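Priority: medium. Attachment 1 of 2:
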């Protein structure tokens, strides 16, 4: 399985970046973190549309597209693992997660996604979402491998 995380914004060196590297390094799957940054001074819907173009351009061909968005559906860790199992069982070997900027994802990008995922009703800092996502991907892989990392 190849995991691509495409996110708006640059992570600064520090604990968040270290945690992302740690979880990515634990996975037997290939993980690539791609950061995009708008260079144009835009606001509102124009900014979201520009960010959507930047994000879309980095989605690998044939990848399952997962948009992280507050309007998405929260999944339990076990359900998330089963979603991965289904992708694997149907020959999908590439998953691309999209994390938008501060104003969220453009509606068209959400509509294009195979899955729209939320981490609950709270608002989370986008850099923390990267860590939480990579931990959940790691947890899903461990569940699928039958490892006792996840306790329920």
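Attachment 2 of 2:
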């Amino acid at each position: 399985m190849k995991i691509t995380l495409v996110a708006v914004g640059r992570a600064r060196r520090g604990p968040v970046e270290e945690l992302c590297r740690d979880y990515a390094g634990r996975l037997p799957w290939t993980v690539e973190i791609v950061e995009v940054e708008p260079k144009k001074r835009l606001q509102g819907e124009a900014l979201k549309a520009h960010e959507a173009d930047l994000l879309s351009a980095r989605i690998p061909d044939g990848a399952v597209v997962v948009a992280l968005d507050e309007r998405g559906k929260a999944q339990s860790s076990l359900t998330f693992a089963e979603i991965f199992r289904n992708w694997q069982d149907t020959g999908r070997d590439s998953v691309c997660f999209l994390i938008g900027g501060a104003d969220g994802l453009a509606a068209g990008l959400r509509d294009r996604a195979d899955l729209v995922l939320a981490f609950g009703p709270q608002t989370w800092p986008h850099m923390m979402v990267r860590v939480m996502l990579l931990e959940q991907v790691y947890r899903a892989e461990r569940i699928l491998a039958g490892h006792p990392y996840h306790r329920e």
